[in-house]
Amino acid sequence: MKEPSPSHPITITPHPNRVRVELGGRVIAETWDALELREARYDPVLYIPREDIAADMLVPNPRRTYCPYKGEAFYFDVAAGRETRAAAWSYENPFPAVAQIRGHVAFYPDRVDIIEA
Fold it and tell me: Which phi and psi (to 5°) does residue 109 adopt?
């Protein structure tokens, strides 16, 4: 497990706008409570609380990856009219430095339609 540092910063802040995730014209998620995770030089990632996601549209995918800063990522296919494989992920037991993202799910913006208002 690695800790964020000045050479690899990670910040998590409340996202100021409403976020809606759609696929195939169907709303997958909508929230005013997204968290924005910024990590080093990567693009920001929006994490949406599970309670703001249509859970019946997330199908567990067997894919797993490991991040030395966040822990093990679990993936989901999104089924909304059409299925998009491994379009979302979560850290079920994130490391303490990023514990705020527990209970949240992130979506790949190129696999769904993300609308910020």
Answer: -65, -20
> For the chain, how are helix, strand and coil distributed in percent, rounded to 5?
10, 55, 30
What is the Cβ-side half-sphere exposure of residue 75, based on CA atoms within 13 angstroms?
13
Coil, strand or helix at 62? strand
Look at residue 54 and tell me whether its pLDDT is greater than 70: yes
Residue 41: CATH number of its domain: 2.170.150.40
What gap in Å lies between CA 109 and CA 115, rounded to an integer?
A: 10
**Quick check: is 81 in a domain?**
yes
- State the total domains in the chain: 1
Coil, strand, or helix at residue 67? strand
- What is the extent of the structural domain holding 109? 10-116
Are the CB atoms for 57 and 79 separated by under 8 Å? yes
Q: Please indicate, yes or no, if residue 4 is contained in any of the structural domains.
A: no
Summary mean pLDDT of the chain: 95
